[in-house]
Amino acid sequence: MAKTSISQVFHSAYDWLRPRPPAPPVVSTSRAGRNLPAAITTAVILLSLFGLTLFFWVDGFILVGVIFLSIALWEAAGAFLTRNVHIPLLALFPIQLLMLFLTAYRGIVPALISYLLGSGLLLAIALIRKNGNLRGTAAGVFMLGWIGLAGCFLLSMLDLPGGSHLIVAAILLTVASDTGGWLLGILIGKHPILPRISPKKSWEGLLGSLLLCLLAAFLGIFLLLGKSWSWVLVFAFLTPPLATMGDFAESALKRDLGIKDMGTIFPGHGGMLDRLDSLLFCAPVFYCLFLFMQH
User: Fold this and answer.
1) Over the stretch 189-207, which tens digit does the pLDDT of each residue have?
2) For the chain, where are the alpha helices, taking DSSP H only?
3) pTM across the whole model
4) Which residue in 16, 101, 122, 138 has its CB near the most CB atoms, within 10 A?
């Protein structure tokens, strides 16, 4: 009887955690294209959670990052099911967790080695096995690099001098880019950059990203980090194209999978990867710039 109960518990837990295709998003009739009050509330809660843990409980910030990135990988596995591609999530989760915790407590190099060895092993097994899931494994390794490895670069900023302030600057810049692009885009956006991939991303929106990034770079790079105006301009002009490329990359993937959002976990914001796409794309470049900036 006990064995049956334990088995039922594990079966129920697996069924609850099992990836599934994202549900259709709630259609919004607003010009903003989203439920604006819900989106603002969600953004405030997320930024507060990051800020409070980052400055008052660093291990908590690491834990939040690990949970968020795990959810993003789980969402990706569900999204690929729309094309009948089965990502080996049970094998990828331990590798991503190892990468993230190694980064947090041992640095980025062990995480890179773990990614290469783990990915290589999974691909080798898929190739050797007679009925190996090569298609799903390749997609999983790709998403592990996009989500897990890029997330490692964000956490690795904690190892640099003033790491908490560096992460604040990185988040401030990407949020400014997304917000400025969205705001000016809905107000005056008329010329799409790549209409086939993302019809709402306009050149006017890119200008809005640049303008707000100039303010964010002044606050984060000049005032918070105490760096020169040349660094302010570097980050202000580099962030919008990087963040936009991250958004385009996810938009292209979603269009290929035939979905609008990677998930529906955040009211007004879609899924986890929908919120992290720009930051994950910027994180490796920001880390390299921050590292160079120390010298």
Assistant:
1) 788 888 888 888 889 999 9
2) 2-17, 36-56, 58-80, 89-106, 108-128, 134-143, 150-155, 163-188, 203-217, 229-257, 272-293
3) 0.86
4) 122
Alpha helices in 129-162 (DSSP H): 134-143, 150-155
Amino acid at 253: L
pLDDT in tens, 121-172: 999 999 998 777 899 999 999 999 999 999 999 999 999 999 999 999 999 9
Place of tokens 């009925």: 131
Cα distance between residue 12 and residue 139, in whole Å? 27
Cβ neighbours of residue 244 under 8 Å, at least 6 residues apart?
177, 181, 193, 201, 206, 209, 278
Query: What do you get for the CA distance between the two ends of the chain, in Å?
Result: 65
Single-letter amino acid code for the residue at 216:
A
Task: Say what the pLDDT of residue 98 is.
Answer: 96
Tell me the residue type at 204.
Answer: E
Q: What is the mean pLDDT of residues 267-276?
A: 76
d(CA 256, CA 236): 31
Token pair for 21: 């295709």
Closest CA to 140 of 72, 205, 189: 72
Q: How confident is the model at residue 261 (pLDDT cuts 50, 70, 90)?
A: confident
The string of pLDDT tens digits covering residues 50-98 is: 888 888 898 999 999 999 999 999 999 999 999 999 999 999 999 999 9
Residue located via tokens 């949020």: 175
Beta bridge partners, 202, equal 192
Report residue 64 as tokens.
């939040």
For 99-135, the DSSP string reads HHHHHHHH-HHHHHHHHHHHHHHHHHHHHHSTT--HH
35 contacts 268 by C-beta, under 8 angstroms = yes
